Amino acid sequence: MNIPSNLKYTKDHEWVSIDGEIATIGITDFAQGELGDIVYVEVETVDETLDVEEIFGTVEAVKTVSDLFLPMSGEIIEFNEALEDQPETVNKDPYGDGWMIKLKCSDLSQADNLLSAEDYKTLVGA
Predict the structure, then answer these.
(1) pTM
(2) In CATH, what number is assigned to the domain containing residue 21?
(3) Closest Cα to residue 27, out of 63, 62, 64, 70?
(4) Number of folded domains that form the chain
(5) What does the alpha-carbon distance between residue 56 and residue 8 come to, in Å, rounded to a whole number?
(6) What is the C-alpha separation between 102 and 107, in angstroms, rounded?
(7) Which residue of 23, 25, 63, 113 sits 20 to 30 Å from the alpha carbon of 10, by its own alpha carbon?
(8) Nearest partner of 121 among 16, 19, 28, 33, judged by Cα
(9) What is the side-by-side order of every strand in the sheet holding 38-42?
(10) How far is Cα 45 from Cα 55, in angstroms, rounded to an integer?
């Protein structure tokens, strides 16, 4: 299982990469493995400002649909539109081309509440 040490994580199995005030967010390798083959990613919250823990979209796999929870408050400024035609990219490259959204963070201190790679490994039993 791939858990890059340079990222932050949530208990909801999302990863966060912060660059200045912009956070790139996707689901973890563990999450995509648990979901199975991803067939659809829906994010209809672009240009909306949401609070931490609010639902920003859904991931549909062959066997289930899962909500995506925002790890930090802010404005969703971009959706990875490549996932519209190739949602399976999330399975193949969850930390690279399979990213889901970019968020303009409204409170960077919320990053302190995210899990480190070590904490996430403990959570998933890796």
Answers:
(1) 0.96
(2) 2.40.50.100
(3) 70
(4) 1
(5) 18
(6) 15
(7) 63
(8) 28
(9) 38-42, 55-61, 65-69
(10) 9
